[in-house]
Design a protein that fits this description.
- With 144 residues, the protein is an alpha+beta fold.
- It has one domain (12-143): Fructose-1,6-Bisphosphatase, Chain A, domain 1, CATH 3.30.540.
- The chain has two helices and five strands; from the N terminus they run ααβββββ.
- Strands 1-2-3-4-5 form a five-stranded antiparallel β-sheet, with helices on one face.
- It is elongated and about 90 Å long.
């Protein structure tokens, strides 16, 4: 004997099929979303590091030495703002030995490699940004 209801609705099998299809679509979309987020983080890191080159040269013209931290560049009005310790998935550092007039370098390191970014970046007074996927980038790494 088959019981029928007068109300229209979905069967449990139909609902399970729809939920399964949504799950399959989500499993394909989420990794792409995460890769897009990492790529955006890398673009922000590259852009921020590019601002250092011109700012360092202006700072050098004013003071005769390069800045050894990005807050010095900010205080002079040469860059728009501080990069927080954790900015867009990267940690930034700008450095040089105290009193050096001709050398500086900076790095951007992903906070969680593979998730917040897949590349490490390095820049120095030459203005060329270099990158590595296997660990910290340096002056011998591949140029962008």
């Amino acid at each position: 004997m088959i019981f029928r209801s007068d109300s229209a609705g979905f069967s449990l099998v139909e609902l399970l099929i729809v939920v399964t299809i949504i799950g399959i679509i989500a499993s394909m979309a989420v990794p792409n979303l995460l890769r897009s987020k990492a790529a955006a983080n890398e673009a922000v890191a590259i852009s921020y590091m590019r601002s250092w080159t011109a700012a360092q040269e202006l700072y050098h013209m004013r003071h005769g030495v390069y800045a050894d931290a990005d807050n010095q560049l900010f205080d002079e009005g040469l860059i728009d703002g501080h990069a927080p310790a954790d900015s867009h998935g990267y940690t930034f550092s700008l450095d040089n030995p105290p009193g050096y007039k001709y050398t500086w370098w900076g790095k951007a390191v992903p906070d969680n490699a593979g998730e917040t970014g897949t590349r490490w970046f390095y820049i120095d007074q030459g203005g060329v940004i270099r990158w590595s996927t296997s660990g910290e980038a340096d002056s011998n790494s591949l140029p962008l």
